[in-house]
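Researcher: Can you fold this with adenosine-5-diphosphoribose in place?
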Amino acid sequence: MKGLQIVILSGSGISAPSGLSTFRDPDGIWIKYRIEEIATPEAFESNPARVLDFYNQRRLQLASVAPNPAHLAIAELEQHHHVQVITQNVDDLHERAGSSRVIHLHGKLTEARSSRDPSIVTDIGYGSILPGDCATDGSPLRPNVVWFGESIFHLDESEKLVAEADVVLVIGTSLSVHPAAGLVHNTSSVAAKYYVNIDTDDCPPGFHCVEGSADIVLPPLLKSLSK
Ligand code: APR
């Protein structure tokens, strides 16, 4: 079938095969670090050096990994369909794989912003933000990443895209963080819905549960959509 409106809702599990940690798996980021020390505005206020170092390390690691077959298969799908990626991830692996329409609900690791004016954003690639670095408005420079307690980006637009999709694929996410996780409830009743995960216990009602590692099971699944 050609020309479908396909929405991909991805989480950290899609990047796990590339070597990036997830958050809640046994070796996950929130197992090694405490959220309240790293990913809240208060944490940045009280210990900016620790927060900046955490994201500097993740940016450095991101420079050393590559998109995996799951990212590449999603990018390839654009040859036959209208594909919109909506990701919870802050990595740039969807873009590096070639996806041209990517919404980052939780921000981007490769961007920094003013801690006073969220519209003052600068691309820093895989570089570091050091304590004392300031934005053009003189405020401390911070990662352009959504911290707990902050509003996520592009939610209304994302809800609309999910509601209008012919096919929705939820890939590599525990669906444990709202409001991003709530997007699965915006699907139309006639849309084809897939939940791709190594563990399908949390497969939402009405979704086809596709068990397996995204880099292995996603390419054949996406190929089947273009038959
Ligand atoms: N293939 C498919 N799924 C995988 C793979 C894989 N190779 N490896 C892990 N998974 C699945 C896990 O089973 C789990 O369901 O990916 C999911 C990862 O869940 P989390 O670690 O909770 O990550 P995520 O859902 O992206 O977290 C959402 O939480 O802390 C915030 O901002 C952070 O965006 C993140 C949000």
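Model: Folded with adenosine-5-diphosphoribose in place. The first strand starts at residue 5 and ends at 10.
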